[in-house]
Structures are given as C-alpha cells and as structure tokens.
Amino acid sequence: MSDWVHCNKCCIKYGGQTSFFLVECGHIFCQRCVETIRTTRKCVLCNKSGNILPLNKDLEQSVLDFFLPMENIFRKGSEIYRFQLQQRTLLYQKLMDKYNYAKKEYMNCSTNNKHLQKENQMLRSMLRAGKNSQRFVTSTPVSQPSLSEGNVTFQNASLLSSIPAATRTPSAKMYPGYSKRSHLLSSGSSHGPSPAQRVPFGRQMEMPMVHRNPSMPTMRSLEELRRSGKSQ
C-alpha cells in the first residue's frame, strides 16, 4: 500500500499489525475506529450507510486500482493512450481509403453521365431533324400534267386511275367562253369563236393556211386593177 493510506478518524498510518477497512462511502478506518461503524452501519464522518471492506489483496481489481502508485497509473494510462491512438489511426486510414475510392468512382460516374447527356441530346436533335424532313415527303407524289403533241398526258398513272371515266375526256362545256359562244350562235351572230375560245386548254392552236381561203383570188384581182389604174 502507499504511504498516504491512514485512518480518517485517528490518523494512524497503514502498516504493522493494525488492519484497515474501506467503507463504501470512500472513507478509511483502522481496526479500533471501525468498531463503532459496525454497530451503527453508518460512517462516523459522513453518516452514510454502506458496506465495509477489508484492505488486502483480495479486493477487486477495480478497488485496488485506487491504491496503485501514480507512476504506475501514468505508465498504464500512457500505454492505454498509445493503443487507442493506434486503433484510431488505423480506423482513420481505412475511412480515408474508402472516401478516396468513393470520390474517384463519383468523378468517373459524373464524367460518363455528362457524355451520355451530350449523346442523348445529339440523338434527339437528329430525331427531330428526321421528323421535320419527313413532313415534306408524300407516299405518292402528284405531278402536274404535261403538254405533248397537243394531248394532255399525266405523269402519274395512279392519279389518272383515280379520275372517273366520264370526266377523263374534257367536254366543250369545260373550256372558257363556252357559255358566251353558245349565246352568240343561238342569237344568229355571224362572228365565230375567237382562236382562244376555239382552242381548248392543253391543245396547240393550228394556224390556218393562206391558200385554203376561197376569197384570196378576188382580193388579188382587185389589187391588180388598182395598180393598173394608178399606172395610167
């Protein structure tokens, strides 16, 4: 025991043939002073009740630690501190390794995500461009009728087949000026239809030949008589 152990009532030091006792409240008494506590079951200093334990090597280690020398306690505490510090350092290193690995994986995932977003945006733009170009494309394109050899021909056979047979051949009523010509003919007018009225849409106008006019000989004879009169 340490030299500081003494009876808290009579101040006798620990040692020799005298036994010492530890009360649960934390006070120490010698053999003589502890007799009064055993009868009353209360500490004579703090008046608290508690168990009485003899100070010997049979005490529990948790109680004996209070009687160890300070240098031993400091040495033991230093060993305990180093051991705990080593374990904390290992734990910190492991956590840092996991953190660095998670950070690296996060950066890789972030970079891949940006590439995928750019690729997705490019594909969406291409898809929109494809849809816009298909709006101007039809499955069966319709071509305008062409004029050849005075007849109307259709480049698209599918459009021609969809027209009823009764309306494929243009009638005279479909040409411009038909109603006016009919009125003039019915009223007895001598004026014939104009060349624009006589030629239907899509047909070439044939120019009349000069030698086909029967009045041309008479006109030539009158012109010769005028010339002969002027010469006389």
TrEMBL record:
Any GO BP annotation: reciprocal meiotic recombination
Region named Disordered: 170-232
Domain RING-type: 7-47
Keywords per UniProt: Meiosis, Metal-binding, Zinc, Zinc-finger
An MF annotation (GO) of this entry: SUMO transferase activity
Compositional bias per record (Low complexity), positions renumbered to this chain: 184-195
PROSITE patterns, per the entry: ZF_RING_1 (PS00518), ZF_RING_2 (PS50089)
UniProt-listed Pfam families: zf-RING_5 (PF14634)
Basic and acidic residues bias: start-end ranges: 221-232
InterPro entries linked: Zip3/RNF212-like (IPR042123), Znf_RING (IPR001841), Znf_RING/FYVE/PHD (IPR013083), Znf_RING_CS (IPR017907)
A GO cellular component entry from the record: synaptonemal complex
Domain of life: Eukaryota
SUPFAM superfamilies referenced in this protein's UniProt entry, alphabetically: RING/U-box
Protein name (Swiss-Prot/TrEMBL): RING-type domain-containing protein
Species, as recorded: Zophobas morio
